[in-house]
Amino acid sequence: MRFVILGSGPAGYAAASTAAALGAEVTIVDRMALGGNWTMTDGIPSKTLLQVSSSMAEIERAESRGVVFEHGRPHVDLLRAEAHARYIGQHQSRGVRERLDLIEATIIYGQGAVESDGVLVVTTERGPRTLEYDHLLVCTGAAPWEPPFAQVDHQRVLNTRDVLGLEAFPEQLLVVGAGATGCEFAEFFQSCGSRVTLLSSRPQILPSEDRDVADVVHEAFLERGMAIEVGARASDVERIGERVHVRSEDGREFNGSHAIICMGMRAHTEELGLETVGVEVGPRGEIVTNGCCRTTNEHISAAGDVTGGWMLASTAAMQGRISALSALGRPVDPMSLDAIAGTVFTRPEVAGVGLTESKAEEQGVRVAVTRQPLRANPRGLIAGQSDGMIKLVWDPDTGRVLGGSIVGYRASEVITTVALAVKAQLTVDTLAETGAVNPSVSESLQRCAERAANARMARAGTTTRVA
User: Fold this and answer.
1) 3-state secondary structure of 214
2) Which of 33, 81, 208, 245 could form a disulfide with 93 if both were Cys (CB 3.0 to 4.6 A apart)?
């Protein structure tokens, strides 16, 4: 089978590996460096910048551990930090190239567009090139959404990809949008010396998280001097001279030297010619797919951010694999988000998987919830980061783990264990009986599971003491 892939991000290279393993002739078309936007402009560079803010936080805590600064405190050189972020992206891109070379995929750089069923035309530097395909996978990603009320000039009013082009830290930054991306950029700039005001359109920051989880990050931000305004749904973002003004629907006004718009992404489907072959596209450009990533054209699938939904690299990779299996006629279960973990790389980190307490309440699902504070966790205390908690959501009848949320030190690492428990339908008893390293954050997960298992025994009438 001639399997052609538009886009080389996490969905693209995961699909390429799977399709090649099944004997397909794989061709990848991309208009930029391999690895896609996630590698070159979005996820990898932004997480690299966040490591800079983490380094600054380590320095702030160093004196309490006996580290003495005799020549003043360091500061962040923004241009060098940006250069390092770009270098990491390029390094990851080379890794994708090596992976694709191993499976002998053909790589073509250029802008691809569907001409007719089974025919893709790629505009390259050397002119147009025609490719015939038996199956086409579209995974062209997404771009920052710029709302019509925001005058994005890429100098004072920025989108999320403009950050790597800044020459100096904003003196006073307005972050419009308090989801994962907004909170991460607020974290970075506040830690590096900018005065940040974070504007949330909802009654809380991180609106996808349980309120008690989001509140831990909210309080940490406030302690570090950040200003937070909730219920501030932006209606106008305007640059006037060297200042930026943001007005919210309730009449409040906010002023700063810069603003960054963090209000989501829009699928990149323009100029792909999908309408010529009957591929249905949604209101924000997203390609409509079924659970196996098939579109309304039987010879075309779509995966990753271009399908809308939960825009995570891990989700994209799973969709890419499923799309390849389905296209090559292998049995495959429809895509499920239940066991896909997500993380917000703030300080403290936030990570979650599966069912949350608030979602269970909205859906009318009967669950039990067990919390374990991290204030006594030895690994967090050693690192000077003891804020937060671990939450397990579980079935009170069977003890099966349905989901979990972690806010605290190394949450992004510990959540994988909870994701495995959800995927494998493990019980809190199994987690409680799984030994954890001491000292580690994972031992607090085990302790949380122990509390849940004890609570379950108590409900069953077994004599026990829930500590």
Assistant:
1) helix
2) 33
Integer Cα distance of 420 and 428 in angstroms: 12
Which range marks the domain in which residue 451 is found? 342-459
Number of structural domains (the chain) is 3
C-alpha span between 191 and 194 (Å, rounded): 7
Residue 195 is encoded by which pair of tokens? 């005065």
Q: Does one domain contain both 132 and 10? A: yes
Q: How many helices (H) does the chain have, and how many strands (E)?
A: 12, 23
What would the DSSP string read from start to end of 275-307?
GGGT--B-TTSPBP--TTSB-SSTTEEE-GGGG
In a domain? residue 334: no
Q: At 110, list the tokens.
A: 């250029």
Against a cut of 0.85, is the pTM above it?
Answer: yes
Q: Which residue is associated with the tokens 């806010």?
A: 407
- What is the C-alpha separation between 358 and 335, in angstroms, rounded? 23
Measured between alpha carbons, how far is 95 from 265 in angstroms, rounded to an integer?
26
104 with 179, same domain: the answer is: no
Residues 8 and 110 in one domain: yes
CA distance linking residue 391 with residue 358, whole number of Å: 12
Question: 160 to each of 146, 241, 327, how far by Cα in Å?
Answer: 10, 21, 34
The helix/strand/coil state of 416 is helix
Distance CA 296, CA 273 (A): 14
- Domain shared by 278 and 253, yes or no: no
CATH number at residue 165: 3.50.50.60
Q: Which of 36, 48, 40 is nearest to 9 (CA)?
A: 36
What is the DSSP code (8-state) at residue 347? Answer: S
Residue 343, helix vs strand vs coil: strand
**pLDDT tens-digit profile, the chain (467 residues):** 999 999 999 999 999 999 999 999 999 999 988 999 999 999 999 999 999 989 988 888 888 888 888 777 788 999 999 999 999 999 999 999 999 999 999 999 999 999 999 999 999 999 999 999 999 999 999 999 999 999 999 999 999 999 999 999 999 999 999 999 999 999 999 999 999 999 999 999 999 999 999 999 999 999 999 999 999 999 999 999 999 999 999 999 999 999 999 999 999 999 999 999 999 999 888 999 999 999 999 999 999 999 998 899 999 999 999 999 999 999 999 988 889 999 999 999 999 999 999 999 999 999 999 999 999 999 999 988 999 999 999 999 999 999 999 999 999 999 999 999 999 999 999 999 998 999 999 999 999 999 999 999 988 765 444 44
- The answer to whether residue 333 sits within a structural domain is no
